[in-house]
Amino acid sequence: MEKFLLKYFNLIRAAIAILIGIIISVCIIYIISKEPGFSLKSLFLGPLLSKSRFGNFIETASPIIFCGLAIAIPFQAGQFNIGAEGALFIGAVAGTAFGVSTNMPAFLHIPLVLLVAGLTGAFWGSIPGFLKAKWNTSELVISLMLNYVAYFIGLYLINFHFRDKAAGYLVSYKLPETAWLVQFIPGTRIHIGVIISLGFAVLIYYFLYHTTLGYEIRISGFNINFARFGGINVFKVILISQMIGGFIAAIGGMTEVMGVHRRFNWQLSPGYGWDGVVVAIIGRNNPLLIILSSLFLAYLRVGGRILNLLSDIPSEMITVIQSIIILLITAEAFLAQWKYKITVREAKAKEVSSEPYT
Amino acid sequence: MENILSLKNIVKIYQNGVIANKDVSIDIEKHTIHAIVGENGAGKSTLMKIIFGEEVPQEGEIYYKGKKVNIKNSLDAIKMGIGMVHQQLMLAPDLTVAENLILGIEPLRYGVFLDLKKIIELTEEASKKFGFKVPLNKKISNLSIGIRQRVEILKVLMRNAELIILDEPTSILTPQETEVLFKSLKDLKNHGKTIIFISHKLKEVKLIADKVTVMRDGRAISTNDVNRLDEHMIAHMMVGRKINFKRIPGVKKVGCPLFTVKNLNYLSEENIFVLKNINFEVRAGEILGVAGVEGNGQTELVEVLTGLREATSGKIFIGKENISGFSPRKIREEMVAHIPEDRMKNGVAEHATIEENIIVDRYHKAHFSNKSMFLDWKYISKSSNDLIEKFKILTPSSKAALLSLSGGNIQKVVVARELSSNPQVIIAAQPTRGIDVSSEELIHNLLKDARDNGIATFLVSADLDEVLKLSTRIIVIYNGEIVARFDDIKNITQQDLSPYMLGIKKKGD
Residue A180: CB partners within 8 Å, gap ≥ 6? Predict the structure, then answer.
């Protein structure tokens, strides 16, 4: 039993953290809601209660998975690039611009639009990457600042050059149908992009753990001096890891545009890049765990939206709940004392059963 | 005689499940120098941390001056009169000696301002009282290691320590500095202090200690009067078998120069010569040892030779090929292996697995990966397991995290990787630093075998015994310059080398 606890300590800790978060949120809801039963149901079961809500939940998870992966790769390389939000935004703008200005059959149009978006995102990731590799600037600060640059450049391009004046509000022209990602489950907006995101997660997992470049990235993240010592070209690793991150984030933004809205309609930065940081941390930068943490976060987000629509509780509540859970999961010391006690008991038991010292 | 400190049945288990101390009981008599010896990982340091309050044991009792005590942190220990001089000295390099001495016990004027006059008075008084001469107004960073250590000891004394723990104090000193230290320690004993002295140099234990406790595998297996034991008996107890102190037999056949360095200079960012006109060659089948006090350019020299740092001028040759300015990967492709001086900083990634650590120089090569793109984990595990067996690395699996190994086994992983890379030149810096005697012996034998197989080895070590034991020829480095060369070392002793190491003597070129 204790062996089992030690082995799955991280999972058990996450479960307990979530449970505590839920208990606290239940308490808060009871205090501020006039109809707590209904509110609780909306929040925790809401996303499962109709087909369209379930669709919402899955569709929301997709860009979060992309952004989680986009953050996880530079993080694994020890590069704290948090520019997924900017890369997603600027990439989606570039992809949209290319999409609305060209005409070709779907089998070419879809991959090309995604490629233009991805390459733009990769370029965006290369800026902090290159500056770090060359002059050791802080990729954290640069990527953070570039998020704003991306946002305002993107808005400028959409609002002044690709704006659909017939739409009546600030959006781009609609993409031609050849650049749409099909919504394949009737009654929902679940689109091909969801499948692409899952495919990417598996691909990135394989990339990180089974390719030489993935190995170089992980070793550089563990100890960059050791990587250099062993002959790894760390300049390349620092640059490429951030380019791949930008590439994936941009694909995430573009699939959202192509699959859900079919035109660029973000006047505010959508925030998936920040969700990406959260799910990468909860998923410990492991692509497969990021799928789970993204689903979890998307579920909370959709539950929050439903709560906001149907009950008397503001959606800010959901942010409180999320914060508590994330805080507990990411706090390394949470339950560490408990683990230590079990370790001590285990070690003693082993010592007693081994042969006596002579 | 009366005991100042008694440890009874101490048990300490770390977070990772390692049992560092198993049922340890030791009595420390007042006014003695009590040596504690043992291999690395025997539990000496943990036990000292427990006495000094840096670790809390799970079980056991501590009696200080006959009273049962509960030491929760170092402040408790200091208040009781226990002081510790760590192996890595704990001084602020940019403050003066006097400022370091009064750190934490500063005399104040009006409760806010430092009383500078009082500081000098207090420190001078202490310096006189214990006969510890130190330059009070000099910055720590301008002082030699030996003097810094005296400052650290004085600092402990000024906090009224009666029991002083010294953690491997001589590992950073030259033989001359060691002599001075020992004289001071004897003086302190006469002043009524009690000293716990940790070491694995048995000669020193014989020289200075009254009592010796041998630790092995987390237990204190014996405590004796030092004069009832000789070095070999102590060594036998430490490792549980006989070990070899002798120099290894001479070279069979020395070939042509494989590794040549010509007029190498390295200027630091402040435009100071860190390496000045370095010239040497290492021939096939020999070990060239570099003796020198640490910090005289050895670190930079090794980094330049292995491509981690760029030389200001000069040339490096492998065979006939000029490799100056090559990247670490390209230098490795010239079949150069590198055992780095700081294994945790450069030699390993502690959170990666053993096999991930082993393949860092070869993951892109045939068999380890397919077309240099896709790793073949099956082959990697197989070859890692071969090395684990061959180099006697103690681990349950090649997929275990490196972090779970002891220091000696981590160094074996480094050595296994480097020696299995089929090198023609080995650059080994501090190859056995801080590891247990049996791992040390294994590594020494491996380096000797490499030598006999015609490999050229460049050995840098702060441990003179090691340099003398392994080298075919020796060069001495002082202040970034080679100040002496010994081509025949048969009759050379530590005493012959140390005047050059300290810059007192210099052989004319």
Answer: A106, A258, A259, A262
